[in-house]
Every structure is written in C-alpha cells, then in structure tokens.
Amino acid sequence: MGTQDIIDRCERIYRDLDFGYVHEWKARTGGKAVGFMPVYVPRELIHAAGILPVGIMGGGDDVEIIRGDAYFQSYICHIPRSTVELGLAGKLDVLDGMLFPAICDVIRNLSGMWQMMFAHKYVRYLDFPQTFNDAGREFYRAEMAELLVDLEALSGIQATPERLNASIALYNANRRALAELYDLRSAEPQRVPTSELYLLLRAGNVLEVSEHTAMLQQYLAAARVSQRPLRDNVRVVASGLFCEQPPLSMVRAMENSGCYIVDDDWVLGARYQLHDTATGANPLGAIVDAYMSDTVATATRYVEGDDKGAFLVEQVRSRHAEGVIFAAASFCDPALLDRPMGQKALADAGIPYTAFTYSENTGQVQVIKEQAGTFADSIKLWGAVA
Amino acid sequence: MDCCYIGIDLGSTTTKAVFLDEHERIMGRGITNSRSNYALACQVAREEAEINARFGLLRKKLEASTSIGALAEPLMAVLACNYALAQHLEQLKALHAECQEVAHAHALPQPELANVGLALDRIFSALATQAELDFHPGSTAASDFFRDLATSQYLKQATAVTRELPVSFDRLVGLFDAAIIRVENHSFAGLYREYLEFATARATADARFAPFAAEIAAAVKETAELRFTVLNIVGTGYGRLTLPFAREQIRSEILCHGLGAHYMFPDTRTVLDIGGQDTKAIQVDGDGIVTGFQMNDRCAAGCGRYLGYIADEMSIGVHELGPLALQSKKPVKINSTCTVFAGAELRELMSLGEKREDILAGLHRAIVLRAMSLLARSGGVDSEFTFTGGVARNQAVTSSLEKLVFENYGKMKINISTDSIFTGAVGAALFAKRDPKGVMADLEVSQLAKNPDCGIAATCSA
Amino acid sequence: MNAEVQKEESMVLQKKMIGEHFETLSKAGESGRKVVYTFVPGNLNELILAFDLLPVHPEVNALQSGMRKLSGDYIQEAEKQGHSEDVCTYVKCDIGMLKKGNIGPTGEKLPPPDLLLLSYTGCFTFMKWFELLKQEYGCPVVMLQVPYQAEGKITASQREFVARQLRDVVVPALEQVSGKKLDEDRLKELLASSARAEDDLVYVWESAKHKPSPIDAYFGGVYYIGPIFTAFRGLPSCEAYYRELRREVDYRIAHGMGPTTPEGELRQQKYRIVVEGPPNWTSFRDFWKIFHDEGVVMVASTYTKVGGLYEQGFRHDPARPFETLAEYCLGCYTNRNLPARVDIIAKYVEEYEADGILFNSIKSCNSFSAGQLMMLRELEKRTGKAGAFIESDLVDPRYFSAANIKNRLESYFQMLEAKRQAA
Description:
The structure holds 3 protein chains of 3 kinds. Helix content of chain A is 51%, strand content 11%. By secondary structure, chain A is an alpha/beta fold. In chain A, the strands form 2 sheets. Chain A has a 4-stranded parallel beta sheet with strand order 2-1-3-4. A 4-stranded parallel beta sheet of chain A has the order 6-5-7-8, with helices on both faces. In chain A, β3, α6 and β4 form a beta-alpha-beta unit. The radius of gyration of chain A is 20 Å and the shape is globular. In chain B, the strands form 2 sheets. A 5-stranded mixed beta sheet of chain B has the order 7-6-5-8-9. A 4-stranded mixed beta sheet of chain B has the order 3-2-1-4. Chain B has helices at 38-64, 72-105, 110-134, 146-164, 169-184, 192-205, 213-225, 253-264, 304-314, 318-326, 342-351, 356-378, 395-409, 423-434, 445-449, and strands at residues 2-10, 14-20, 26-33, 228-236, 270-274, 279-284, 290-295, 385-388, 414-416. Chain C has 18 helices and 10 strands. A 4-stranded parallel beta sheet of chain C has the order 2-1-3-4, with helices on both faces. In chain C, strands 8-7-9-10 form a 4-stranded parallel beta sheet, with helices on both faces. The longest helix of chain C has 23 residues, at 156-178. Chain C is globular, with a radius of gyration of 21 Å. By secondary structure, chain C is of the alpha/beta class. At the A-C interface, α6, α7 and α14 of A face α7, β4, α8, α15 and α16 of C.
C-alpha cells in the first residue's frame, strides 16, 4: 500500500462528518463510543472501559452553519458553532456520550449547553489541575476515578488494572509511532508532507488505536522509500493550533508557501505526553502521573516558575527550525493571550516569528499563503524578520 | 373632510409614508429617497402619499361614474403619468436654474460661463423632450426617484453636448452634483393643483376621454380640494429619533414591521426582513403583536449593503446579481459575508478560476444562511412565514431561502412580498390608529408645530 | 435634565473607604506594607487581611479606568505591544495602564505587587492575566485553582482540593510575603465580620421584591457590592457600610421611594427586569440612563453575584475557616454551570416578579457570554417572559454602539408594552 492510498483513506475519514467508521465499529463490536473535544483527554481510560474514544474537532469547512450561529455571538470562535451544528443535525447521535475537557471558558460552557441540549446523553466536563502539586494530583486522581466509574457504567465493562495496562500499552505504541512520524518529517521533510501528517493525525481521532498505529507504521514504511525532491524550504514550527483546526486548504497553503513545518501543536491530544506511560500495579496512578509531570507546554496549561515559552524555544532548537508561525483561531483566548509571551521568549532567543489568525472555515487562504511565503523569504534572505 | 392616520418609516435609504382611513384601509402610499435631510424626506414622502390618496379617491369616483366607469382604468393611468411628468418637468426647471446659479457662483471666466450656459440650455431642453417620451402610461419612469432619473439622463446628454461645445464634462458633472443636492432640499408638491390641471388638460385632449372632459375636470377639482384631517401620526425607522415627535408618536421598526406584515398576511407568525443595513427576524402572535425578535449584530454582513459591494466589485448593477446567480450549476462554498472582505474574497475566488455565477450563487446562499441563523436565534419558523425588505426582490435569495426553510422547518407557507417596502409604514399607521391616547387632543401639537415640515397641520392641503 | 442628586450617606462612606485604601496603597512603598494583587471572584480578602497585607484588584482598576474614559488608550497601548483585538479588554486595559505608569483610579500611583495571588475562579483568562503580569513584575505567583461546578453542585473532592491548596500552598506563600505566621483567631474574627455584612447585603438584594423597588440591583448594585467584593470584606468599615445601606433601603421602603440614580430618584417603575452579564463601564451612565428613561428598574442581576451568591444561603463560617473559604470560591456565579445559571435566573424572575430578562452580552467575557443565547431561549421557554439581547464590552469604547443598543432596547420595551396592552 503506497502513501497515497493511506492518505486517501485518511481524508475520507476526515471529511466524513457522519462518522461512518464509528457506526461500523459499533456494529462490528457491539461496543459504545464516546466523543471528546480536544485538547487533552486520557483516551486510555475510555479504551480500557471497552469504549471507542472519538475526537471531535468541529466541522471544518464542510459544515454549513445555521443553528450553530444561533447559539454563539460573532465574537466567539468557530469550533463550538460547528460542534453544535453537528450535534443538532444528529451527526453525533452515534456517540453515547461527550467529554468536554478544560480548554477555555467557551468549551467549558459548551459542556453545560450539551447537558441541556442532550439531556438523555452522558455528558461530562473534565477539570484538569493547573496546580502541579499533591493537592492537584489528588484532585485529578479523584476526577479520573469518577470518570472511570461513569465509563464502566456506560459500557458495562470493568476497566480492570489488566485492561488499563493493555490500553496504556496500545497508546504508548501509538505515541511512539507518531513520534517516529514527526522525527522522520523533521529529518526528511520532503518525505512527509505536512498535509499528509495532518490527515494521519486526524484519522487517529476516529480509528481504534491499534488500527491507527498499524496505519502509521504502513505509512512510515512507504514514506521512507518515497521519492520526493527536497525543496529549498524554511523550517518552521507552527504554534497555537491546538483546538479549533485550520482548514486543510490552509495547512497545504502554509507548506506550499515555502515552509517545511517541522513541528506543530495541532491535534495535540494525540501527542500530549512526552514519554511512555508506565504500566504496572497502579495504572490509574500512572495516567495521573503522566499528566502531572510529563507533558508538552500549551496555552491551556498553567506554567509555574519562569519557564514561559521555554518549551517552544526548545522545540525550535531540537527540530533545527528557523522560525515560528503563530497561527491561532480567531477569538481563541488561550492562544491569543499566550502569544505575546511566546513571542517574547522567541525574541529573547533571537528566533524570528510571524503571526496570523484563521477560523476552521476560513475561505481565504491566499492571504495566509502570502504571509507565510514572505516570512520564509525573509528568513532565506536575512535569516530574520525585519 | 376625510379623517386619516399617517405612518412614516424613515429608512436609511428610503422614506415611506402611508395614509390609513378610519377603517384601517390604506388610502395612499408615498416614497422618496432619504437624502441627508430626514425632515424633508418625511415631508416629501407624506406629500407623495397624500397625492396617492387623492388619486385613489379620484379613481373610486371615476369607477363609480356611470358614464366614465368603463374608462376609469386607462384614464387614471394617463392622469397619473402626466401628473408625474408635470412634477418632473418642474423639478428639471429648478435643476436647470440651480446649475446656472452654481456656475455663476463658481465665478467662471466669461467665455467658459457662456459655453456652460449654452450647454445647460441644450441639456435641459433635451431632458424635457426625453421626459415627454419617458412618461407614458405603464412606464417605470413615473415610479423612479427624480435623482436617479435625472442623473442618468443628464450624464448622457452632457456626454453628447461636450462633443459639440468646448465645455469640460467634469465641469458639467460638478455643476449637477452641487445642484441636485439643492433641488432635493425643496419640496415640489405644493404645486400639486397645477400638476393636476396639466394632467387633466392632457387627458381630456385624448380622444378617448374628450367627451367626458367636464365631468373629469369636476371630479379632479373635487378630489384636489378635499381636506384631510390627520388624527394621529406615528414615525418609525432608523431615522425616527430625528423626528420632532413626542415619545408616544414613535415606534420601533420591529413592532411596525411585525404589525405591518400581520396586516398584509394575517396568518403569518414569523417575519424576516433583510434591508440595506440590517436584518431582522421577528415573531408575531395572531394579532400582529411582536413576541420576540433578533437583529443582526453590529456589522452589515449578509445585508443588502453587502450585495451592493459585490455588485460594485463586479461592475454590474445590484439587480443583475440574482439572475446571474440563478444560472449557476455548481455553487461555490462561501463561508463569510463580511462586507469588509467582500472584495478580497471575490478576487481570490476569481483568481482560482471560479465562474462568476457560481461565486454569486455561493454568496447568495451565504447571505441566506446568515438570515437562517438569525431566524433560529429568534425562535425558528413554525408556521406561515413572510419575507420582506429590499433583498426580497432578489430571486436568488428567495429561492435559496425557500429551499433552506423547507430543509430546516419542513413544508411551510411562505409569503414573499416584493411590495413590502411599505410594511413598516403600514405598521406605524396602524399604531397611529390604534393608540388609545393618540388622538390630536393628546398630541404635543405645539412641539410638532415647531417643524411644520413633518409635523401635523390641522389639514394637509395647503 | 439632571436633578441635583442628594449624595447618600452610604455613597459618601464608600468613597471615603476607597480613597483611604488607595492612599494607603500609594504609601505602601514608604510604610513597608506588602501588596497582593488578586481577583474579585473567589477573592480571599479575610486571609489577606489576616496577614495584614494590602489587596489590589486589577479588574476593579480596569473598570474604574473604563468609567473615567481612560481605558480606550490603555487598550490601544496593549494592542500596540502585540495583544490581539480579540481578547479580554480587562487584561489589555490593565497591561496598558501598567505601561503608562500604573496610575490607579484615584490618581495615585499603584504599588507593584509583592505577590500575585491567582484565585483562578470561574474565568480562564485570570490564569493568562497573571502569567502576563508575572513577566512584567517578576514577583512570585501563588495559584489557587478553583474547580468548576460542572454538575451544579460542590463535591467533597472539590472542597477538599481548594481547602488543601489553601493550607498547603496559599497560606505558606502569604506567610512568606508577610513574614508572619497565620493567626487563626484573627482570621475567624474577620470571617465573622464578613458574615454580618453578608446578612445586610442579602437584606438589600431582597428589598427589590417590594414595589416600587427601593434599589436598582444592577446599576445601583455595582455600588452596593463595592466594599464587600473587594478590599473591605471582614473589616468593621465594611459592616458599617452595609448597616448604613440597609438603613437607607428601609427609609426608601417606608416612603415608597425608588432607587437613587444619576438622573434622580426612579419613581415611575414601568418594568421590572432581571439582568444577566456584566455592565458596560465606558458608557455606564448613558447605559443606565436608557433604562431610567424607559422607567425600568433592575430587580436582580447575576453580575453582582460574581463575588458570592449570598442570598442562596452561603455565609462565611468562622468555625470552618478553610472549608468556608473553599465553599465561597466554589460558589461564585461564574463558577456555576449553565443549567445552574438558568435555574438561578428563572428563580429571580419568579421571586422578584420580573417583566423581562435582559442579557448584556460582553465581548470580553466568554465565561459569562458563551452560551447566553441558549440560556435566553431556555429562560423564555421556562418563564414565559421575553428576553432582550444586546452586545457591548467591559471597557472597550470601540465596542459600545449607543444607537444600536438604544434601538434594540426601545424595540424591546415597546414590545413589552404592546404585549401588556394586548393582555
């Protein structure tokens, strides 16, 4: 199987807002499916309770918004509108529950709206600790234990320590495959076009984890022998795209403008942890530990101490990137409030950056392409942005 | 002595007036462009409505006549278009004089002034001749605003005249631009008796009507001298706050639109109005009382104004957009109707090789989607639905809207009223009639009288 | 025409309190008093005072800047420095004020913080705000995370989480900054005083059940909550203020009087309205006047509950100092989930016999605004009362369109009138 067939399948999954795969999976296994919004949700718990975790990242640019706009003012980002649109159109009926992790006040409030809109469905807001101490750890452990009880009740399947450990192992394997994919892209960006990597990630929102890992490995094998010319592109890190996603046309435009994106934070939940989660006698504790102390930095997560922006600078260094593109969804409070701090850290480190906003249904990618292109040119010419 | 109630709707582009009689029947309608002067727009619209009411009464009288009854229809058409012609010629005269005056004020060098004078004489004589051709029964000229009619004709004649005389085209345009504003600041209805005489003379010169000249003249005279007693007047619309009315004499356009739509379509429960600057979704009960409403947020995205920008960008008239969009086989998906980016969005799509009609079809759909969101916000559509406002004249919008209403709310009776421009004024007039306190005795007449332009005189006939 | 308004004693008192507080702040550098910046929702005023520290509330400074027409410049300053147009204008106003010399609402220079006490309650932006301020001041930050009442109730685990942070993290940080050990008796004294002031405040809120209402629970309400939501809760001056306020309310009830407004007393009360959402500060008086001119009295509001929903029975309890502080933080209005917020407003409509519900949807504040359109529809369904929806901002003058708002509100009140006549 060549890369194109794999990517074609990914794109079908990405475009399928009827979630055909989830329907099939449920019919095949008799299991339940639970949706979750990005950024981070411990999918291992859902999986261990025999439930298919389904990442819901809005409707992209394929959904016509009618009812969604009736629920949100114009100064609120786009992802909740398209999510509501999908929900009210019955497209999410295949899900037996929805999880809303703590990302921002909009998604937090959406959890309450969902409770009112879908009173008969299981809905839960997941609060994550922003205090990385014993009090936070204990709170989080209690939250996760409660979630597990809910999930077990939903599926009728006990998430025993054995099952938890098995799920952890599967997600560890998936994260490793993703890390390999990212490493390959960074080492030989011509072999892994960003739009393909992006679609692979998106497929992981829906596919059962072992199926997704197998797909990643197939793609890796094919990509390693693919023949694509190396272009004289600038290596950049894309930052700020962790929740509402850019349309695929924009992902392509960014790369076609003369940039190799060598690291990014889209579909961040799939790569939230830096290392494997431990398996052993206390798997729930291991999941809690992983969140508390072994994660990426992102705008939705409080940074203690003086390390603001350090993670981003390190990302640039380790990937040998030459600049950063800050792209955030319009009206995304976390990303936009975080941005000046990230920019300051980059300026202090002498790393050039550019910044723009988009929305998931942005129709005009030309402007963005020009801006990214100008940024790439300026780095090539002067090594920095005037 | 006829008693009446008046509603005036001061829109951002046009001002409308409606006369209602004691039985809530519409007697007359008037419309004019809002100009920069609301008070005058208000006066002109009212005068237009009054004339329209007189014509209505005249028509009734003629139709009831045993001798003329059968000819009433063509006779009224002749009278109406000649009345409009007389008024138009009067305005042309005034415009000519103003152009001359502006030219003098500019202190042009003598030779140029002489040429300009000559050019103006030729232009205006041509305009008068053209008017005679343009105003005939059934023509649209009579329903156009003077400014629009005069502008297009003047530019045409000015182009021709600069080929014959050493006068600069820009000079002539400059004179016109200054003069038209002055002319618009006059009302020409004061001479309505003269216009009627002119129209009567023209009509009775027509072989069909000549035998009844005496009877026609008597009927015209009678309606011309009829006095209207205004019992109450209510203002609404965007410019209502500039009306020198007491609080009780002002109603919001939302309420007026709801009641006006109910008047036209008693069974309607939901009204959508897309105007130039704003979109309104209104829910009404069985009596036309508004029970809920939503307006677009601060920007004019998805309103008529947006279509104006698009038309400018494509260098075509707004009225051509709909027909073009309807030719599309494959609408482009467009997500934004932001007026600020209208041009950029369009250019990007064109540069991607999309067809004009496909882009337009997408744009029209995007506008309707916005309206659908507003409808959903206001409580949706669950029975007879009415679509009003300037944009209701655009077929691409209406067909898209019908489709989406059906998809989202099921089969629904939809009223699309292209004559809906008076909806708000009708509602205002109904409020004037129904206001329990709103009779002349309770009006702050003293306050209104300060501005006779649009206040209430005891009678309307000068 | 503005009638000459008799300044009421309570207003004079409040002005004096605030004046003295800012004077103390301006002298903090000389006196060596330590300063803690913290937020109004879920503020730990009693704990701060127990350490003899001086609290500063950035949101209050921002809203004051808005009222004094300075916020526009501050916001643009922050935007020049790279802040997005899309984000919270309180933050930008604060950053802009800082960049322009940190002159506080009374014209005195504000002292820099010795500690940023991040009471992260009901608002995600607070967290970002103090991350940003930390970069500016380089002082320590202590975080108190208050989990969200996602199920409409406080769970044992949530209460324990907050109390434990107070014990393990917040108190040690305050001890460090102040150089003092916590005096628990002093804390209990302060908490007991808070509870007494809270009793009087609840009395004031509930007086709006009278017809005519002696108070305006929204525009007037922002003055009524001034002392108790900020630097004074727990102090004798705060108790005295609420005793006085209660006395004035009683006087107005006895004389059948309406609330005092900038336009004079509101006698003719045509409509009784419940309000959801913060007010607009840049055009506060004009905004209020629109309602005054329509004969509208606000009988209950949710904004005045961001620092505690006392009328639902919560009181600071000196017997359980840490648990009570935890419950206070958890109970703030913006920390309640949407179904709970709908319940609260529906209850207001019923108990205060309101004619309608007004939503002032604030661009800057997603915590309040995201979901309000749905709340509005739910409330209309549930109460049978019509709602009005307008959009403005906290302190961004570019986002207050007086004509637009006036037009909507006029339409709304005329609609209520037409319905009334039809009934």
